[in-house]
Amino acid sequence: MQLSALGQIALPVSDLDRAQKFYGEELGLRLLFRSGRLVFFDCGGVRLLLEGPPHEAPLRPSAGCLYFKVPHIETAYDELRGQHVEFDGAPHLIAKMPDHDLWMAFFTDPDGHQLAIMDEKRDRTPGATPGSA
């Protein structure tokens, strides 16, 4: 047996309507469907499942982070801020890799789950040195 790509990620939420609005209207994810206390969004082929109350244990924000790939981080940052998404700071360089520069900007959802946008900037200029974006 061999594991492959992720098919679905689940996050508990305290208010399903508020979470659906945040992920759908503010982040712009495509709503797949809603069934009872479950809402499903498409994240580039991976389903994001938001599970509303009741929860067996008190809701705590996830200790992990969901990273959303974007083609141009500055544009995505500006558009999301226009949708009232509050970032912890502006996009910034995380690491210089051999073939790209990794940029990220972090924010949280209404339940405090850590989220980020990420851009693997590559210089497409002919003759450019990898990682010089």
CATH topology call of the largest domain: 2,3-Dihydroxybiphenyl 1,2-Dioxygenase, domain 1
Name the shape in a single word: globular
CATH superfamily of the largest domain: 2,3-Dihydroxybiphenyl 1,2-Dioxygenase, domain 1
Q: Give start-end ranges of low-pLDDT stretches.
A: none
- Number of helices, where a helix is a run of at least 4 consecutive DSSP H or I residues: 2
Strand fraction:
35-45%
| CATH secondary-structure class of the largest domain | Alpha Beta
Number of E strands? 8
Order of helices and strands: EHEEEEHEEE
Which CATH architecture of the largest domain is right? Roll
Biggest sheet: strand arrangement = 1-4-3-2
Radius of gyration over alpha carbons? 17 Å
Count of distinct structural domains? 2
- The percentage helix is 10-25%
The end-to-end span amounts to 40 Å
For the biggest sheet, the summary is: 4 strands, mixed
Q: What is the average per-residue confidence, as pLDDT, rounded to a whole number?
A: 91
Helix-strand makeup class = alpha/beta
Summarize the SSE layout with pairings:
Layout: E1 8-12, H1 16-26, E2 30-35, E3 38-43, E4 46-51, E5 65-69, H2 73-82, E6 92-96, E7 101-108, E8 114-121
Parallel strand pairs: 1-4, 5-8
Antiparallel strand pairs: 2-3, 3-4, 6-7, 7-8
Q: Can you give me a brief rundown of this structure?
A:
The protein is α/β, with parallel strands linked by helices and 133 residues long. Helix content is 16%, strand content 37%.
Descriptive overview:
There is one protein chain. This protein is α/β, with parallel strands linked by helices and 133 residues long. The protein has two domains: 1-54, 2,3-Dihydroxybiphenyl 1,2-Dioxygenase, domain 1 (Roll); 62-133, Roll (2,3-Dihydroxybiphenyl 1,2-Dioxygenase, domain 1), CATH 3.10.180.10. Helix content is 16%, strand content 37%. The protein has helices spanning 16-26, 73-82; strands at residues 8-12, 30-35, 38-43, 46-51, 65-69, 92-96, 101-108, 114-121. The protein has a four-stranded mixed sheet, with helices on one face. It has a four-stranded mixed sheet with strand order 5-8-7-6, with helices on one face. A hairpin with a 4-residue loop joins strand 6 and strand 7. The protein is globular. The model has no long low-confidence stretch (mean pLDDT 91).
